[in-house]
Amino acid sequence: MSRITVVWALLVLATLASFTLRHGAAMGFRTATVTILVIALIKVRYVMLDFMELRFAPRALRMLSEGWIVLVGSILVSLFLRNAQ
Amino acid sequence: MIDVGQEPETYRQSQGALNQSFGLINTVLMLSSSWFVARALRAARSAQGAAASALFGCAALCGLCFGIVKFFEWRAAFAAGHTVNTSNFFMYYFVFTGIHFMHVLIGMGLLAAMAIYSRSAILGERQLRILEGGSCFWHVVDVLWIILFALFYLIRM
Description:
The complex is a heterodimer of chains A (85) and B (157). By secondary structure, chain A is mainly α.
């Protein structure tokens, strides 16, 4: 199986995992939500690395893109933690 | 998150009205369409015009299915009386998924064009760059949906 296909399979699995988590039964809603957000950003990362071929891009571009993912992820998680009651 | 975070009850209630299964199906459709696009690009690079064309076509088909699911999803929401004015959550939901869907439509047009364009096995550097550009557009549409899916359907306020 090619790398692209393996990545796709893992993305679908990650989606199913997040979907199961949303019931929040396994862990508190705060932990569940942060986990869901982190999984989403990891999914975005692999779409960028392997589907958008960021893996083979110039280092500067790759660092910028990964930096963006970390930035957006941090903002979303902190906004959630600040606003969730 | 800031706005609707002030009203967690509304968030939970409105979110509860969303069809989670439709959201899940749409996410898998988006991921699969990106998978097809990635494979199509690889085929185009190896001068496999027919394969590339078919794969871009499959991606466009996934986009079409996404649209069909979205249609049923929104129709159900309207039937239940939910509109842009129902709550802040629903305002954001319809606006963001609506704008996203407009980009899906644009992307489908691009994919159809790329399916036709990639048929010819003789693709030079310039042609490949064009295919890469169109592919990137579609992948970003996928990335946006991954985030929207998490924010609207999955997270718990």
